[in-house]
């Protein structure tokens, strides 16, 4: 069985758009591309290395695939471990119509992405790692296909942009597997889905008259 694991950078307000550079993805007038750069240091780089230690293939939405395919195949440094691995492994691409895939070892998932991924997950092989791909993530979460998140949360508020969870996604609980804070302020946390959202009530057993009036006002 293969797992779908998500590795993503987010701001404190949940924006994940264009973390790598100013020209990466200006869609929607986004002007803060490259927002992760000031927070990276050797320790955080080592943490990223740990995330990529397990065998994996890439699972990408079309837009992120295009970004990666215009960059990684052109890195010629044999000591660049990320380029070497990304260029070697299989890249599975989710797209509504069959795209042109020039990057070595790239495969279109076909018109029915969900069915194709369910089949892939049932097979033996390395995990499927999602990078970027905000539109695809919404589908994966809705279809309960995500097995694990590795989320790097940066101490910055971006205000607008593509988000890890867009408005209207199905609610769900997550279990924190591990979490580590770094000197730059970045927090790296691993989550796994944990069923439905559980709720409770810190209020008094018998609400006051003022509380009942407040609730009536809100209901209006």
What would your notes on this structure say?
With 220 residues, this protein is of the alpha/beta class. It has a single domain (4-219), classed as Dihydrofolate Reductase, subunit A (3-Layer(aba) Sandwich), CATH 3.40.430.10. The chain has helices at residues 42-51, 62-69, 81-88, 113-122, 134-142, 209-219, and strands spanning 4-11, 56-61, 91-94, 106-108, 127-131, 148-154, 174-181, 187-193. Strands 4-3-2-5-1-6-8-7 form an eight-stranded mixed beta sheet. Strand 7 (174-181) and strand 8 (187-193) form a beta hairpin. The protein starts with a strand and ends with a helix. The model has no long low-confidence stretch (mean pLDDT 95).
**What's the alpha carbon Rg, rounded to whole Å?**
20 Å
Summed over residues and divided by their number, the pLDDT gives a mean of 95
Class by helix and strand content? alpha/beta
Can you tell me the residue ranges where pLDDT is under 50 for at least 5 consecutive residues?
none
Shape: globular
Q: Supply the CATH superfamily name.
A: Dihydrofolate Reductase, subunit A
| Beta-strand proportion | 15-25%
Give the end-to-end Cα distance, rounded to a whole number of Å.
Answer: 50 Å
CATH architecture: 3-Layer(aba) Sandwich
Helical segment count: 6
The level of helicity is 25-40%
**How many domains in all?**
1
Side by side, the strands of the main sheet go 4-3-2-5-1-6-8-7
CATH topology, what is it called?
A: Dihydrofolate Reductase, subunit A
Number of β-strand runs: 8
Major sheet description: 8 strands, mixed
Order of helices and strands: EHEHHEEHEHEEEH
CATH first level: which class?
Alpha Beta
